[in-house]
Amino acid sequence: KPGRLNNLGTKLHTRFEQSGNLDDLDQAITHYTTALTLTPEGHHDKPSQLRSLSHSLEERFKQVGDVLDLEEAIKCSTQSVELSPENHAQRAWRLRSLGVTLVTRLRSPHAYTDDAPRAMEAFLDAMQHPTSHPLERLRASSQYAELLTEFSHLLTASPRLSLLEAWKHAISLVPQCIWLGNNVRGRYTSDGLSIVGTVVNDAATAAITAGEYGLALEWLETGRAVVWSQVLQLRTPLDDLQQLHPQLADRLRHVSHALQLAASGSPSVSTKSQLTPLSLDTQPQSSHGYALEYDKLLTRIRELEGFENFLQPKTLSQLAGACASGPVVVINVHKSRCDALVLSRAGDVVPVPLPELSLIRAMGIQKYLWDLLRAKRFLNRCRGDLQDEDDERGGRVTEMEPPDMMRKILADLWNWVVKPIMDIVCTLVPSSATLPHITWCPTGPLVFLPLHAAGIYPKNERAGTQPSQTIMDFVVSSYTPTLEALLKPRARVIPNGQDPRVLIVSQPSSPYAINCPIPGTTTEAGIVMSLVGESKPLDDANGTIQAVLEGMETHEWVHLACHGAQNRKDPTNSAFILHDGHLTLAELTSHDLPNADLAVLSACQTATGDEKLSEEAVHLAAGMLNIGYKSVIGTMWSISDFVAPDVMKVFYTVMAEQVRAGGELQPAYALHEAIKVLRRSSGRGGMNDFLRWVPFVHFGL
């Protein structure tokens, strides 16, 4: 009966949270109190019952203001901690709850002089509790830091951990919060990712405020694309370890292999490029055991001389290698301040305050853009539906026409974000006849915004009334989900004097998109074949999932002219639509293509991402980077079946010139030139047709 009463109290509290009806809250407290009375002393349910009662009493204090409720809430929460064994898995949760209740009293007129130190000790004990869930410890670390920021003036003694030490502890818990024992889909759908993103954002902001810009950059890198970073870590070459400790290297390779299989969520594989199954014990049901063994192996390896930093997060000096082709700009968007951190090849981090930008403004621009894209159906249409130049089937968002709306969005991005950064970047790169290259690594709402197209675009530029001022006049832009993605070996996979082998996939009428033919893909495939050397076409029925995956194994370049879709309910099911089904992001994660070079994704929404997981880069372009491609051309929203062939004609013409010239290939410059030509055209995709030329983006090297 006590357990059922406690459950009833929980349901009533939940209904109060939905309805705001105080009668539900009063009844919840009554049932919690009765359950406690009926539960004998020493019963293992007592601590959790006390915690539930404390939570409801604290909530009633917030609603009604009766200080007796708050006093009783703190008393119940204190008892809940006292009755919890030292090694209990929920002790950190109960300690954290006590700290939260004490902070509630700190913020009220009824604060006690010892509330701040008591709350601090509760959070500190919770964050250092070894047997509690890492996510609870992460939350406690964050709350300790927040308390220290807000109430340090009330402390009579120096805190046991400083503010940055607390955030450092929180960052150290990030890898444990997104556990390798889950498959990729499970990691993306866990609560941990959104919490990790917020904590890392707060920690980096604290470091920037303290002037520790390098530390802020390292922390932001730790918290970005956590799942992709884990996938890459499992594929790290073990050459040095193999030479000195071959048995450990073999075992780590075996365990990593098993975890990659489990991550894909599939026990079987279909092509040579995928991992070969080991045995039934490598399947997801035993992946928890492999994850535990993986952690133990890392601990053992790091105890060896010379391997202390084995697979540890990259330091600032290591991350500087990401700047080989130009500065990398990481932008931190926080509710208290916004800053850019410009990383140079020398390893210097130059801070650029962005006083005109705020989290609210960034969210506002994102909403404004996505409302426009939804109204004009650029987020839910295939490339075959974007044929009409007038595009009358889309709805209206405001009284402004779409070109005027995009003009405002791009101008705001220029004034608030890009121009202040350009003023600094232009002082860091040597003057040259060639435009410098810059790589963007934004956070938060900026992840979904076209920084590469920011600028002032007058309505009648050709009339000479007002000159344009755009980012494309100053730099060539790329994006990256993480700095580590730019640290791949730059060895040329295509020998000098040889043409790349190009796999060309076109799907003008896939049975899985029967209502949306895209005949332009046939034209596009013909253009690409005429401009590249050795190529293999896979069109219509030949473009099966199996054939495409096998072709990716043997070709350095792949061109996918087909439907693409971002799945917002399950981003790991975002996919390329081929002749016999969907080639999903989840499927791609089980592949490793070390000789891959360039992927051109001439499909819709291949770099859109998920609003709920902005820091994770859950899109097809990032997926192609992470299976081995060095450069990826993607699209931020749906593209036109008429415009895509024009873009690809110029892009591959420039790429062919680069191949003939030898040296390092620069797909970002080729795309930059293609978009310039498209903007100068008088037809579809011209200067004011922003929705058609802006979505094309370059990721990677």
Q: Can you give a write-up of this model?
A:
The protein has 701 residues and is α/β, with parallel strands linked by helices. The strands form 4 sheets. It has a 6-stranded mixed beta sheet, with helices on both faces. A 5-stranded mixed beta sheet has the order 3-2-1-4-7, with helices on both faces. It has a 3-stranded antiparallel beta sheet with strand order 11-12-13. Strand 14, helix 23 and strand 15 form a beta-alpha-beta unit. Helix 3 (46-64) runs parallel beside helix 5 (91-106) and helix 6 (115-127) runs antiparallel to helix 7 (134-151). The protein is globular, with a radius of gyration of 28 Å. Mean pLDDT is 84; it is low at 266-285 and 384-399.
Mind sketching the topology for me?
Blueprint: H1 2-19, H2 22-38, H3 46-64, H4 67-82, H5 91-106, H6 115-127, H7 134-151, H8 163-172, H9 174-177, H10 184-189, H11 192-209, H12 213-222, H13 226-234, H14 239-244, H15 246-264, H16 287-302, H17 316-319, E1 328-333, E2 338-343, E3 349-353, H18 359-375, H19 402-428, E4 437-442, E5 455-456, E6 469-470, E7 476-479, E8 502-506, H20 520-531, E9 535-539, H21 545-554, E10 557-561, E11 563-565, E12 575-578, E13 581-584, H22 585-588, E14 598-602, H23 620-626, E15 631-635, H24 643-661, H25 667-680, H26 690-693, E16 696-700
